[in-house]
Amino acid sequence: MKRLTISCLFVFFAITSFSQLKEDLCLWYRQPAADWNEALPVGNGRLGAMVFGGITEERLQLNEESVWTRGGENTDLPGGANYLPEIRKLLFEGKYAEGEKLADEKLLGDRLPSGTNTYQTLGDLNISFQGIEETAAYKRELLLDSAVVVTTFQSGKTSYKRTVFSSAVDQAVVMMAEAGNPGMISCVIDLSRPGEGEQVFADDDQIIMKQQLAGKGVAYETRLKVINHGGTVSREGQKLRVEKADKLELRLVAATNYRGDDPAEKCDEYQHLSAGKSWEQVLADHVHEYQSYFKRVRFELPETEAAAFATDDRIDAQKRGVYDPSLTALYFQFGRYLLISCSRPGCLPSNLQGLWADGLTPPWNADYHININIQMNYWPSEITNLSECHLPFLEFIGELRENGRKTAKELYGCRGFVAHHTTDAWHMTTAFGSPIYGMWPMGAAWSATHLWEHYLFTGDKKYLEEYGYPVMREAALFLSDFLVKNPNTGMLVTGPSMSPENIFITPQGEKISVCMGPAMDLEIVWQLFTDCIQASQVLNSDEKFRNKLEKQLANLTPVKIGTDGRILEWSDESLKEAIPGHRHMSHLYGLYPSNEFNWNDSPEYMKAAAKVLEGRLKNGGGHTGWSRAWIINFYARLLDKENVWKNLVALWAKSTNVNMFDNHPPFQIDGNFGGTAGIAEMLLQSQAGEVNLLPCLPDQLPDGKITGLMARGGHEIDMEWANGKLKSVAIKSKLGNPCKVRYGAKVIDFKINKGETLHLDGNLNVTD
With the C-alpha atoms ordered 41, 42, 45, 48, is the resulting torsion angle positive or negative? Predict the structure, then answer.
């Protein structure tokens, strides 16, 4: 591999400045995956696989979104609400250790040994190929524009090609193995799953695997249909042997009883979708359907010399400081690819690992952490023109209500619904675990703000009226009841609560998590109440509740800035940071994803947020992938292009696996999605009532073109820039809303009719 040095940077900069724009849409490798973190993902939202690209031993590790255990129920501790007054009194009096101890005993109740139930692998499809000896010209590719993984190589005089994808049209993982000469494909095929209890059966051309997971876990069924072109297929116990085929096609379907279906009947239904269809038609249908999402956005940058590297070499080169700004576009589109592949309408939302998790005990159960992780998964959904991919999360929020109402009443004596730091496929909402992460009743409230964001981008008033606002209102109703007057100030605060997964040092030297009114809580209250007030006005309804929220907002404790100029995480300067470089930067929620802090209305908070980031990074912050991704979004909102770029490169160099999965470590997909959102945010912002073009364009991206980004208000944006300056912009109005456009210091109001496109030059002059 050619190694590049820092001294070459200026040469490459010159190359990129004058080279032709190009779209980079391929991850590729010169060798099979050595382990799971090198394999390549495919998915149709519900059914996925990790493709290893083996030569003689190919493995497809399989996932179906609803393969979940259910070993028991997490129940609310009875009568927890009775202890709230005493817990609050202790915390208000500064008796933090006593207050936390009582909250731990009376609110953090029954729990499963592992915390939540677990998402698990569906199993493995293994193919042992025979007759392949020494090979050459190996290449393994993930083609983002068509959502297929292609493996090619040469053995002797025969060329081999294997293509894998997961079709949403036919609800199947499909593989085609081809050889350049007839009769050259012979192999043994089997399905398996780690652990015990799976039943595997083979008949003439099909393998069936099924199992009932222990306890109340799901029952699943997987079917693999073998279609040989030439040669023969025969059964060998639980496996199938293929001899001397010209081509070999595999179609795998799977289903569970998670939604009350019979898995066998669902597999019948899924197999019927592609029955009678040729390979060519199945592939064409898949590509056409997938591209209806992916092709909405195109991102072109000049190709740097490092772009010629294989992807693993390219990622590794970032650790050595190799200049590769065109990696920005590939990383961005890979993030969009992942979201399309793991979150489709009607599916469960993307979990901690998206759709792809190996084994029976994935990290953190691959569940739904709702104290930032699942929210971050959906930050890119609206702005990168994948609004439909947002829907699984939005629907999931509403499904938390049934359990969340019980938890709100039992633990807090409140109306509405609540959820804490973690949930699972069974919609658990109770508080559990240790105070450092469990005593946080803001998960449902933060999640509910996504419903208003969906409306701001889509203008779907019917959805807002019939679903979005009712869910938002119920989450806000809990907070409205939960707020309590601070006897020391007379203003409203939340509590007991904490700043997610962080601890402070009391004046007595104790390390504690639980307090009253941490900054993030106050910011979430501000955001959700503001959203509900605006939604009520849009719908011209619920005036009484709107008035109540307005009064509570007016008396809400403000977020404070300390004497050192930083936003205070715990709203009390006597409480000191125990971990100055902590990965969570929860008190900057008001900067991003909220817009409570912005340069137009609250510049003092923007400056204070910048000082928080400076302190965190100075002390080792950003050491996890998702945390680094959040930092990129923070700096984009701060319009700090230098630090946006520095942290984007750090994300690639320190927190990206060779298959481009985010490395927490271990793998968590939120960093991919947060990084994708950050790239979009540096190119387009619309959170302050303006469509801000290229607000934070790094100097390293002087030339480029992007089409199809979305701004709030229903505006679709195409932009081209050269030499660091806006060259042209096209704004298509999907809703007919007025559009205030900003570029640098220049701001102009435009009126655009629904369906029309406004064309502007780099000075915001109309060109058509």
Answer: negative
Pairing of strands 739-743, 691-693: parallel
pLDDT digits (tens, 9 = 90+) for 476-514: 999 999 999 999 999 999 999 999 999 999 999 999 999
Q: How many CB atoms lie within 10 A of CB 603?
A: 11
Which one-letter DSSP state was computed for residue 742? E
Beta bridge partners of 556: 492
Length of the chain: 768
How many CB atoms neighbour CB 715 within 10 A? 24
Distances (CA, A) of 751 to 608, 651, 739: 36, 40, 6
Q: How sure is the predictor about 679, in pLDDT bands with cuts at 50, 70 and 90?
A: very high
Closest C-alpha to 729, from 748, 19, 528 = 748
DSSP string computed for 21-43: EE---EEEESS--SSGGGSEEEE
| CA atoms of 476 and 523, how far apart (whole Å) | 13
Question: Which stretches does DSSP call E strand in 145-238?
Answer: 148-155, 158-167, 172-179, 185-192, 199-202, 206-212, 219-229, 232-236
Helix (H) or strand (E) holding 128: strand 123-130
Strands 148-155 and 135-143: antiparallel
For residue 654, what are the contacts with CB-CB under 8 A and spacing of at least 6?
A: 319, 623, 628
Q: What pTM was computed for the model?
A: 0.96
Task: Encode 478-509 in three state secondary structure.
Answer: HHHHHCEECCCCCCEECCCECCCCCCEECCCC
pLDDT in tens, 312-346: 999 999 999 999 999 999 999 999 999 999 999 99
Tens-place pLDDT, residues 173-188: 999 999 999 999 999 9
665 phi/psi in degrees, rounded to 5? -85, 160
Provide the CA 468 distance to its chain's centre, in angstroms. Answer: 21
Burial readout 19-30 (b: 16 or more C-beta within 10 A, e: otherwise): eebebbbebbbe
- The β-bridge partners of 323 are none
**519, 567 contact by CB (below 8 A):** yes
CA 661 – CA 37 distance, rounded (Å): 8
Radius of gyration for the chain, computed over Cα atoms and rounded to the nearest angstrom: 27
Instruction: Answer yes or no: are the C-beta atoms of 106 and 83 closer than 8 Å.
Output: yes
515: amino acid identity, one letter: C
The single-letter code of the amino acid at 48 is: G
Burial class (CB in 10 A: 0-12, 13-18, 19+), 268: middle
Q: Which two tokens stand for residue 768?
A: 């058509």
| 443-458 vs 519-539: helix crossing angle, rounded to 10 | 40
Cβ atoms within 10 A of the Cβ of 218, count?
21
